[in-house]
Amino acid sequence: FIALLVLLFNLPTSPVFEKKLEEIVNFQKLSQSYSTGRNVDEIHEILLESSVSAVQADAAWLEILQSGIPDRKCLTFHIDNFQIQEIKSKIGKSRSYKILGSELIKHIKPERYFFNLRNYRFRSVLIFPISVQGEQIGTLALLKEIPDGFNQEMIGVIRTFVNQVSISIENYRLFDSVIENERYIKELNIARAVQKNLLPETLGQSSLFEITAFSRTADEVGGDYYDILYKKNSVVIIIADVSSKGTSAVFYMSQMKGIFQSLAQIDLDSKEFLTLANNALSMGLDKASFITVSLFLVDGNASEIDYSRAGHCPVLFYSKKTKLAEFLYGEGVGLGIMRNHEFGSHVNIHRIVFEAGDILLMFTDGLVEAKNPAREEFGYEKLKNLLLLTADQDIEKIKNTIIDELYRFCEMKNPEDDYSMVILKFK
Length: 427
Fold this sequence. Notes:
The protein contains ten helices and 17 strands. The protein is an alpha+beta fold. Strands 2-1-7-6-5-3-4 form a seven-stranded antiparallel β-sheet, sandwiched between helices. About 3% of the residues have low confidence.
């Protein structure tokens, strides 16, 4: 008799235990979906399968919003797209009950809703919006052919599943973000290394002049470039500024360096040099990008400098004889702006005669356009006055005075734009 009673009392609990065990297994699948390396699509499939199984739904669909794509991805179970649209239409006309409240509503909002439909195959509809960090990314709909087919226990199970999926997808996104950041950092380190190699480690020595340079980037990598090439009877010097920023600027800098190192080997005047450089760069530069350049050919035998300017800043020249400093301008447009044979007509050659003690200061626009907290620019006149003040000192002292004054003026050490300068003091 006792054995019979035990059997009778255990019979109805066996399927309950099996059901609970199945729910636990499904929840475990969802909770481990991220750690087991499943992608987001597989997580969606597990959610749909687990939810259908947990409430013994007759049909279901899972609609996913895809970022930047108007069409929605839809996973289905025993239902087609025509029926889905039909049910959505009926839901819009029916009364719905907020699961955690009692008020009647007319529209689906980011809550969980239970619908009873009349005169239709599916009489009960349970809708759960899926959200990640407050953003709705999809909707889970479960359907039954009987009215009031979902009780609070079923709703609680589905809520747990949906919440776990939201956590898994958020973790997946965070993990993707970490990977993307690591990839970006690696690319940035490569760009830094490339940029470091693009600028000369040393500027060499010359019997004609002393030379020094300085460069600082506003971001992790910058677009300023300078270089020098010593030839038998002359020296070729370039200073340039790429309009782009970041890693693309480094790529264009490398192109500019290759062109400089190639053309500087040939006996070209500064106008021919810039014309050929423009032709070469026009085939590789993005249409929205350009490079401003100033090119200097120093002739030691004649004590002359021929220079041409392609949209770059003026050069500051100090004459020891007259004790005066002036900015030397010149016509020209940036390389890559005019991509035809007319570029050469906008470039001219200018000549400077130098003597011992004269100074040539080349720079990029980030230097004179640096701003203080009051949004005032460092400016050309301040740079000119600093050169006049330090002209009798050695070039390292000149450079350090300008840099120190720039930092004092800006009240910070991080410029808003890249800035570079190259200083020559003739012997």
